[in-house]
Amino acid sequence: MLFHNLRIAWKSLKRNWALSVLIVAGIALGIAVSTTFATVRHSFAKDPIPAKSDVLYYVRMDSWDPLKPYPGPDPTLPPTQITYRDMTGIMRSDIPRRQNALFKSALYVYPDQKTGRPFREMVRLCFSDFFPMFDVPFRYGSGWDKKADSGPEPVVVLSEEMNDRLFGGKNSVGRTVRIADREFRVVGVLAGWDPGIKFYDLTQNFIEKPENIYMPFSFVKPMQLRTFGNSDGWGTSGGLSGFDGFLQSETCWIQMWVELSDVAALARYRDFLAAYVLDQKKHGRFQRPVNNRVSTVREWMRDQKVVPPETTAMLIVSLLFLGVCAVNLVGLLLGKFLARASEVGVRRALGASRADIFLQHVVECELIGVVGGTIGLALSLGALAFLNQWLKTTATRGDLFRLDVPMVLMSVGLSLAAGLVAGAYPAWRICRLSPAVHLSLQ
Amino acid sequence: MEFGPILRSMRRNKVRYGLIVAEVALTLAIVANCVNMIRDARRRMAIPSGFDDDNILWVMSRPFAPAFKEDGYLDNSLRQDLAVLRAIPGVKAVSNTRFLPWQGGGSSMETRVAGSKGEMLRNQVYNADESTLAALGARLIEGRNFTREETESEAQRLRQLFASSRPVGGDGTPAEKISQDVIVSKAFGALLFPDGKALGKRLEDSDGDQYRIVGVIGRFYNPYGWPIHEYVMFFPNYSRSFQGGAGFLVRVEPARKAAVLASLEKALVSANGGRNVQVKPVSEIKERFQSQSALLVKILALVIFLLLFITSLGIVGLTVFSVNERTRQIGTRRALGAQRGDILRYFLLENWIVTTLGLALGVLFAFGLNVALVARVNSPKMDPGLVAGGLLLLWIAGLAATFLPARRGARVAPAVATRNV
């Protein structure tokens, strides 16, 4: 029956070519526009690490100026990063299953003379837990072990891209690379890791790809590494200057993550942080009200406004656009169906029930929805390719906007819904026509 | 006029006309809001920096040779670079500074009027030299510029001062305060001294160190993460280090921009090969900063175009349908003496009524959608003038879309009425 209806629907579409093209083009445009902008927004808004989003937490504390709040867009939020002193203070906790302090620096890499001139690269300073914590996949080797954190041992992990550049893509584990003023031993090469939005550091340029080099955080002191990301300071220098002064200062420049196995651990960790802050208050620090945040990945993304408001505006506009296309479709279908009222009259007179007629026309609408939706999906692939190309001009990547399975499903769902919503009324109208009236006109 | 028959016919076909009303209403709402967003983006893009953006090149020298770790070597290299850059034909001014217009950030500090108990105010802060204003094309409106000697001596003084920790007094701040001469923007001066008399006044930071305002520049706008885009303080100092490199702003004669751009990297690297040199026109940095707004404008314009197309299509469809359905009635009217013009007028009037109903509803939708957008995505408030413009546009589009099918209707021969009855 369905097949029969489909055949009739196809014939009906073929009969009035121009009108069918208009109808299908209208729905295709609506689906293309809405799928494109839904995908753009989704690329920012989706959970970047779904497997672990219930155990990863970003830590913030309000160590800011007693006289006024941190000057972000929301005055109730503490600074986005923590100080070096607090990082060393709270890393003493044994409540988290894993924990990590991060920042990025810009350092020179000195390849073999044959490979080329020295070049400057973004380097992620982190602890060994970084790799298991964020489910980072390895092509060769692995992350460094805990011992290397405290040494610190001169070890690095390279991205696949950097391994291609420095070692021609071969297994480079055990080989050395000179970074800044010392030799580092490669212990691991990543397997094309790309979480989309760089969720582990949302303080700056989170559209960029992850860094190409990872080294133990503790090199911060011996190498006197300054952050290349944001560093927010306030208040007196206390007379301190130089690198030690920087580490002792109230400057916030480190990102802090913990992995907590369950809600009990989360509660204990919150208590621990509160106790830490109260203790610091005794030493004259943390004079603002206690305002600790142990945020999920999603909460942290929301606070950092990862989803650009423009994408939300465009999504709203594009859904309304689809609405206009659907309304337009109702009008066109109504005209199309009523134009063949006499034909329906014949079918009814020959015994077709109202339900048969209704079903036949709804199937036709759904066929239009599916054909239009498919074309729309193809158009949105083109539009996304264009947007990715544009992204390349402002960021180091051109592949952030990707049509993934949920988006394809949404698009198909929207097409079917548009077909049904637009087709239901015309189909109902046509099936209600009395057969006699239209037969008499023949 | 045939208001009576039209309204009666519309009442019998509520859904069909209702659809067009809804479509027109939604279209007006979307178009007005899109144009509103376009205007907002355009407005943001049109904000001038106050500098000669098109003729400034940004040069960054990033040393890798270990020799650059030594202060004396860095200073010599800096002087050499300045000389090399200034010798290039077509170069008007060269400044060594960390400031870079349109990079979407920079560095900031907090100050207040010296001796006051007022609130500390945040401002952007950059080192500068005697050529910074010339390189930017910024205008000094009061006071004086820095001198070369001042830049050199301040660089030495600040370096010595921060070479070791400073002894602190009872309040935890450095016991011995220093004072620096600074140039501020007019907007920052006015923020601190609402009477407009900033020149010669002193500011202090949270260490109690003082800043004497010796010069005031006119417009300064550099977008920052915090709302301090127009507040700046320049102080004389070098900007060069091993890790941070040395930044330069080079102002060129417009006609020789391309030639200078092409020669800069080679000139610097051949003067000293122990580093990498990156060169970029400030216009490109500005373009990159604004690229999101520029793209948004294009996308919104495309959406408006497609939407008007679809809606016109809908109106054409409705009129064709309505003409086809009434072929016999038209024939009857024509047979009874109606002129072609009467028929045409009938359809145009019918469409005008439908469009107008839609537009009336659309005005409500437009403001409603705007309220939603303002609340969610801090889009700007709707300008009623835009809605009025949208009304006019859709009225015209509606009549244009009706005209062709209606004219076809008007051509129906009176004889049609007598056939097929």
Q: Give the biggest beta sheet of chain B.
A: 6 strands, mixed, barrel
Cα-atom radius of gyration of chain B = 34 Å
Helix-strand topology string of chain A: HHEHEEHEHEHEEEHEHEHHHHHH
Provide the structure class of chain B: alpha+beta
Number of E strands of chain A? 10
Number of domains of chain A: 2
Total tally of structural domains of chain B: 2
State the total count of DSSP E strands of chain B: 12
**Structural shape of chain A:** elongated
Helix content of chain A: 40-55%
Give the helix tally of chain A.
14
Side by side, the strands of the main sheet of chain B go 3-4-9-6-8-7
Strand order of the largest sheet of chain A: 2-3-8-5-7-6
Walkthrough of the structure:
The complex is a heterodimer of chains A (442) and B (421). By secondary structure, chain A is of the alpha+beta class. Chain A has two domains: 2-47 and 308-440, no CATH class; 51-303, no CATH class. In chain A, 49% of the residues lie in helices and 13% in strands. Chain A contains 14 helices and ten strands. A six-stranded mixed barrel of chain A has the order 2-3-8-5-7-6. In chain A, strand 2 and strand 3 (119-126) form a beta hairpin. In chain A, helix 2 (17-45) packs antiparallel against helix 13. The model of chain A has no long low-confidence stretch (mean pLDDT 91). Chain B is an alpha+beta fold and 421 residues long. Chain B folds into two domains: 3-46 and 290-418, no CATH class; 104-238, no CATH class. Chain B has helices at 3-12, 14-45, 71-87, 132-136, 148-161, 186-192, 257-271, 282-325, 327-335, 340-377, 384-410; strands at 56-63, 91-96, 108-113, 121-128, 140-143, 179-185, 202-204, 210-217, 232-236, 240-241, 245-252, 275-281. A six-stranded mixed β-barrel of chain B has the order 3-4-9-6-8-7. The radius of gyration of chain B is 34 Å and the shape is elongated. The mean pLDDT of chain B is 91. The interface between A and B is large, with 60 and 68 residues.
